[in-house]
Amino acid sequence: MFGLFKSKTPNIKVTEVQQRLDEGAQLIDVRESHEWKSGHAPGAKHIPLGSLEGRLGSIAKERPVIVMCQSGMRSAQAAKTLAAAGFEVSNVSGGMVAWKRAGLRTV
């Protein structure tokens, strides 16, 4: 029973995202449209959490996926959905709050 309740989705730090993107990963921002418009990570693809299941076909399954939201909670849900669909997925710990706190660029 050890590890039974442990999350199967790895969390990564915002400082690891660019390296993963350089290695071929894709970044998906699952926040709502008004949050996305207020600033997002460069190169991110916007798929709100509520639309994710219907848009799985628009995500390249052969590339690792990194998911991000405002704080890391919704993206954790998105990561579970993606993992269940067979994607290799990581969740950005702290989301856009951590991203901005780290002084990383937004567009």
Strand and helix layout:
Elements: E1 11-12, H1 14-22, E2 26-29, H2 33-37, E3 45-46, E4 65-68, H3 73-84, E5 89-92, H4 95-101
Parallel strand pairs: 1-5, 2-3, 2-4, 4-5
Described by the principal axes of the CA atoms, the overall outline is globular
Highest-level CATH class: Alpha Beta
**How would you spell out the order of helices and strands?**
EHEHEEHEH
Looking at the structure, the CATH topology is Oxidized Rhodanese, domain 1
CATH superfamily: Rhodanese-like domain
| Share of helical residues | 25-40%
Helix tally equals 4
- What structural class results from the helix and strand content? alpha/beta
What does the main sheet amount to?
5 strands, parallel
From the N-terminal CA to the C-terminal CA, the straight-line distance is 44 Å
Q: Tell me how many strands there are.
A: 5
Please state the average pLDDT score: 92
CATH architecture tag:
3-Layer(aba) Sandwich
Radius of gyration: 13 Å
User: Strand content of the residues, in percent?
Assistant: 5-15%
Give the total of domains: 1
Which residues sit in consecutive blocks of at least 5 with pLDDT less than 50? 1-6
